[in-house]
Amino acid sequence: MEANRNILVLLEEELLINAAIAAVLVARSQRRGRMKKRKRRFWTRPWLMRRSLHGQYEALMSEMAMEDHTGFRNFQRIDPELFQEMLVRVSPRIRKQDTRMRRALDPGLRLAITLRYLATGDSYKSLEYGFRVANNSISKLVPEIGAPDDGGVFQDCTLRDALEKGKLGLPEPAPLPNDDQPVPYSIVADDAFQMRSWLMKPYPHRQMTRQQRIFNYRLSRARRVVENAFGILAHRFRCTLGTFEQDPKTVESIVLACCVLHNLLRSRYPTVANDLMDGEDPDTHEVIPGRWRKQEALTALEYLKGNNTTKAAKGQRDYLCSYYNNPVGSISWQNNMI
Questions:
Q1: Count of CB atoms within 10 A of residue 80's CB?
Q2: What angle do CA 260, 263, 268 make, to 5 degrees?
Q3: How far is CA 61 from CA 12, 73, 93, 116, 117, in A?
Q4: Which pLDDT band holds residue 168 (cuts at 50, 70, 90)?
Q5: How many CB atoms lie within 10 A of CB 187?
Q6: How confident is the model at residue 24 (pLDDT cuts 50, 70, 90)?
Q7: How much is the average pLDDT of 102-118?
């Protein structure tokens, strides 16, 4: 009997061992099955490889360059001829070398993607689908070619520091026309900024006198020139309308690129932008809004907290107010505009 019990124990242990081995083999088999079913990871997505057939640069832009210059200009903000001229100039700087792993992007494609980003402000992911270039590549090429409110940024920028310390190189104070009192040169601003002797802003709108309303009108009339400059820039390069997601150095390059292209277009096609600008009726002097005002506008500035306006700044504003309401500094229609 004892011998039989020992045999049964051995058989039970052997069964347990065999069951454990079987479980391990089944687990290994299932793991191999999952690995076979797992999709192969591509170095690049297959549809990106068909860029030469369906990419916006290779297909769409080529068609528009031959058939529709207006469409090309709307897409890239410049004519095909100017695009080619720019490409010749920047190609040596933006051309990359091929590697054993992949071919470098064509300089024309790199320029086209950058111009399209400046024109629309589309995300890199969105540009990826149109141009069939991986968004991580676009995030690198745009800076190569190419948050606090604005008032707060101005508070901390080097321009303000230079103005405060008198190191910007502004001309010396000079008398206004038909006057003998030297007045400092100043930046024309709105309520988002804190007033200084070198930065003039309107009077608060509550309980203004007639003279103060005239000053505000004259200041607004001068500021309209600045509004047109920024408005037309944003109308052309819509990346400036939203919030930049890049680091500050990249944003600086993007904005400078927009300014350079804006000035280039203005010098090459001086009459094209005329209908974008505000006009003024020669008889009534009413403002005729430019076409840029009918589009999406720049985000309004947020007001700075606190009131650090200096006595000198208030005194200068009051002096200008008096000048604009005096016969030597007034304009004939200003009383009709308030």
A1: 17
A2: 120
A3: 78, 10, 22, 11, 15
A4: confident
A5: 17
A6: low
A7: 93
Q: Are 114 and 107 in contact (CB under 8 A)?
A: no
Q: Which of 158, 181, 184 is nearest to 171 (CA)?
A: 184
User: Between the CA of residue 287 and those of 128, 217, 283, what are the distances in Å?
Assistant: 42, 12, 11
127-134 own/partner pairs: CB under 8 Å, 24+ apart: 130/55, 130/56, 131/51, 131/55, 131/56, 131/57, 132/47, 132/48, 132/50, 132/51, 132/54, 132/55, 132/56, 133/48, 133/51, 133/55, 133/105, 133/109, 134/44, 134/45, 134/48
Q: CA–CA separation, 318 vs 211, rounded Å? A: 10
Give the C-alpha separation, 241 to 298, whole Å. Answer: 5
**What distance in Å separates the CA atoms of residue 147 and residue 153, rounded to the nearest whole number?**
9
Q: What is the mean pLDDT of residues 224-249?
A: 85
Q: Are 303 and 151 in contact (CB under 8 A)?
A: yes
> What phi and psi, each to the nearest 5 degrees, are found at residue 209?
-80, 170
The pTM for the full model equals 0.61
- Least Cα distance to 222 among 254, 189, 195 occurs for 189
Q: How far apart are CA 338 and CA 335, in angstroms?
A: 6
Residue 303 has pLDDT above 70, yes or no: no
By C-alpha distance, which of 221, 189, 170, 174 is closest to 338? 221
pLDDT at 19: 54
Q: What is the pLDDT of residue 296?
A: 61
Selection from 325, 317, 300, 305 nearest residue 195 by Cα: 317
